[in-house]
Design brief:
It is a single chain. The chain is mainly alpha-helical. The protein has one domain: MetI-like fold (Orthogonal Bundle). It has 14 helices and no strands. The protein is globular and about 75 Å long.
């Protein structure tokens, strides 16, 4: 029975995909980096030697040592522990923002590409309006709109930043999915489903969407790094995570005033952002090579 399953097309494709992934050393390196960050996010409490927000004024601005691997900040807090805890916020920002923008953008792109006509025209013009503004500038405007007139935020500052990044990321998914749907909806199997009396909703979500997933998965994987950079940028200018939250952008913001003498306060969070983004970009490149039918031939 197992041998019969191994001969099925799905399992053949899976084996071939794993073979292609194994041929790309950069993709394997990216996957290893991602798994390392996942491990740190899951086992943060066991890896971090100190609580992230415990103030110890007797040990302020200590350089890296065996006791404090990445030194301490101006309040005596262990930088290594705060950086490790920041991994959870990076995944929270990335996964939540990508999930929201992917869901909304994919739905809009699918309906726009399949329905066409006025639906397509209105939807794409709205996406063009969002794309007309610089990515981070539009996010700043959205976060500012979520602030109370007397100061503070209507939502949690971190969630306000995630929502803003989600909104500005929607057009990239909508346009990508629309372009894919326009090519898929003219294929023979879609025409066959339409001839058999399948409803438009079923054709769109059962027949067209599954055959448009490859570029969506690649875009979502590679945009995780972009989202984390954007969230760190918002935190850096005070519109994202607020102190004492151990978020990487907030850590860089507080450590920039200590450069260059106490370089470790801002350098190590920056290195973590670099590695996080590099891991998802490398792995996303590998996924693109695997899922692109032209490269599989």
């Amino acid at each position: 029975m197992f041998e019969e399953m191994r001969k099925e097309p799905f399992f053949k494709e899976m084996r071939y995909s794993m073979h292609l992934l194994g041929q790309s050393y950069l993709s394997i390196a990216g996957l290893a980096i991602i798994l390392l960050f996942v491990f740190m996010a899951v086992f943060t409490s066991f890896i971090a030697p100190y609580e992230p927000n415990v103030i110890d004024l007797a040990n302020t601005l200590q350089p890296p040592s065996l006791e404090h691997l990445m030194g301490t900040d101006e309040y005596g807090r262990d930088v290594f522990s705060r950086v490790i805890y920041g991994t959870r916020y990076a995944f929270l920002e990335g996964l939540l923002a990508v999930s929201i923008s992917l869901t909304v953008g994919t739905t809009l792109g699918l309906l726009s590409g399949y329905r066409g006509g006025m639906t397509d025209e209105v939807t794409m013009r709205l996406m063009d309006i969002l794309l007309a503004f610089p990515y981070l500038v539009l996010a700043i405007c959205i976060v500012s709109a979520l602030m109370k007139p007397e100061g503070g935020f209507f939502l949690d500052p971190l969630m306000s930043g995630i929502l803003a990044i989600s909104i500005v990321s929607i057009p990239s998914y909508a346009r990508l999915v629309r372009g894919t749907v326009l090519s898929v909806k003219e294929t023979e199997f879609v025409e066959a489903a339409r001839a058999n009396g399948a409803s438009s909703l079923r054709i769109a979500f059962v027949h067209i969407l599954p055959n448009s997933l490859a570029p969506i998965i690649v875009e979502a994987t590679m945009s995780l790094g972009t989202v984390v950079i954007s969230a760190a940028g918002l935190s850096f200018i005070g519109l994202g995570a607020q102190p004492p939250t151990p978020e990487w952008g907030a850590l860089i913001a507080s450590g920039r005033f200590l450069l260059p003498t106490y370089w470790w306060c801002a350098t190590f969070p920056g290195i973590m952002i670099l590695l996080f983004v590099m891991g998802f970009n490398l792995f996303g490149d590998g996924l693109r090579d695997i899922l692109d039918p032209r490269l599989r031939r």
